Amino acid sequence: MIGQLGEVPIASIGLANQVWFLLNLMVFGISSGASMFVAQLWGKKDIHNIRRVVGLTVKLGIVAALLFFTIAFFFPQAALRVYSSDLEVIATGSRFLRIMAWSYGFYALTAVFSMSSRAVGNVRLPVLVSTAALVLNILLAYPLIFGVPGLGISAMGTTGAAIAGLIARVLECVVLLFLIFRDRSNPVAVSACDITEFDWSFIRRVMKPVLPVIGNEFLWSMGITTYNAIYGHVGTNALAAINIVSSIDNIAFVLFLGIGNATAIMVGNLIGQGDPERAYTYAGRSLVIQMSGALMIGILVMLVAPGVLHFYQVAPEVITFARKSLIVLGSGLAIRAGNHSIIIGILRSGGDTRYSLVLDGLVIWLVGVPFTAAGAFLLHLPVYFVYALTLTEEVTKFTLGVRRYFSRKWINDLTSQVAKTDPIGIKG
After folding, report:
1. Is the same domain home to 93 and 187?
2. Is 338 exposed, middle or buried (0-12, 13-18, 19+ CB in 10 A)?
3. Burial classification of residue 387, based on how many CB atoms lie within 10 Å of its CB (0-12 exposed, 13-18 middle, 19 or more buried)
């Protein structure tokens, strides 16, 4: 819908969403790091320690949300100047950011309880709630963005999009928590004591493998943010094109996010049950399925997605940039999906978080960012070639990741670490 408003709104919301993107990756790091414990503990049906881990995750998620709320609400213009020097883009993005900042705390809680629910096998609930929230967002966005004079609703443009997003986020969180906590036997239905508990021995043991995940997500997200800053300095049209491609990428990649997360749950459960051989076999099969599916979707993107560009009311140059960038997207989708499966579904679920940190958090800075920056600022390449240079990171990660999978060094039982700090013992 924002695509109907022109280049500046597209670029503005794209940049404003970079702040949310950083929060998203920070919360995802916290939640996915904790979920590797939850998945393995669920393999042993250790509900008591599952709730302790979830309680700790809630605390960390809220701290992250407060940090990014402060940046987005009080210093939005300073945050957006990192990505663009276009004053109109910064002003429009700042208004959007201040409204969306109020959703950050709700989003953090939703992410924590959604990932924890998936880790104990309750995949359906978070999917249904998030799908309903997405539909609600769409239904609210259209009238708020474009207006409905007959109902007395004025067109609010990007501000309307922000209000729709905020309402959807709040209701998504409220509904999810209600459905979880109405059944006190739910493994992730934490008590107030689980959230307020400060057992430093427990925290140290959980955070030892979780901190590399948080560091991984922070370094990777800053790398992706640097990519977007590079695109922004290439030009507003270049940035608008990449934001269009990113929206298509999000749709094309959603299936593989699901497969990667499902792999993590399955592999983590098997390790927790004391069956590392099956964990290794299932991880390999999931990797093959992931990449095969992504190869087909990538081809489909190259064939079909360019037709979608006609729905965007933007300059012809933006359409040209986006169409050529979509070819890059389709070509690299399989290897990106494979890397997601290796890092999220295999290495992290096996507790191999230090290697994941190197593979995902450092390779982007050692390979991807230097090549991309060189393409933009030294060679002055068009944005679609600059975008293609980000694949140097993906090829490097995939080569190293496959070697790590075959080594089996990633398989670690994390449940014993938590059990050492539990004075009560396992509760069913």
Report:
1. yes
2. buried
3. buried
**pLDDT digits over 241-255, tens only?**
898 898 889 888 988
In a domain, 226, yes or no: yes
What pLDDT was estimated at residue 417? 67
Considering only CA atoms, give the Rg of the chain: 22
Q: b/e map of 300-333 (b: 16 or more CB within 10 Å)? A: ebbeebbebbeebebeeebbebbbbbbbbbbebb
Residue 204 inside a domain? The answer is no
Q: Round to whole Å and give the CA distance between 268 and 43.
A: 8
**pLDDT band at 54; cut points 50, 70, 90:** very high
Enclosing domain of residue 251: 212-422
Whether 428 is covered by a domain: the verdict is no
Ramachandran class of 157: left when φ > 0, alpha when ψ lies in -120 to 50, beta otherwise: left
Residue at token pair 């938590």: 418
149 and 229 belong to one structural domain:
no
pLDDT digits (tens, 9 = 90+) for 145-191: 888 877 778 778 888 889 999 999 999 999 999 999 998 889 999 99
The DSSP letter of residue 153 is: B
pLDDT higher than threshold 70 for residue 6:
no
180 and 233 housed in the same domain: no
Please indicate, yes or no, if residue 207 is contained in any of the structural domains.
no
- CB-facing half-sphere around the CA of 208: CA atoms within 13 A: 9
**pTM, to two decimals:** 0.76
On whether both 162 and 51 belong to a single domain, the answer is yes
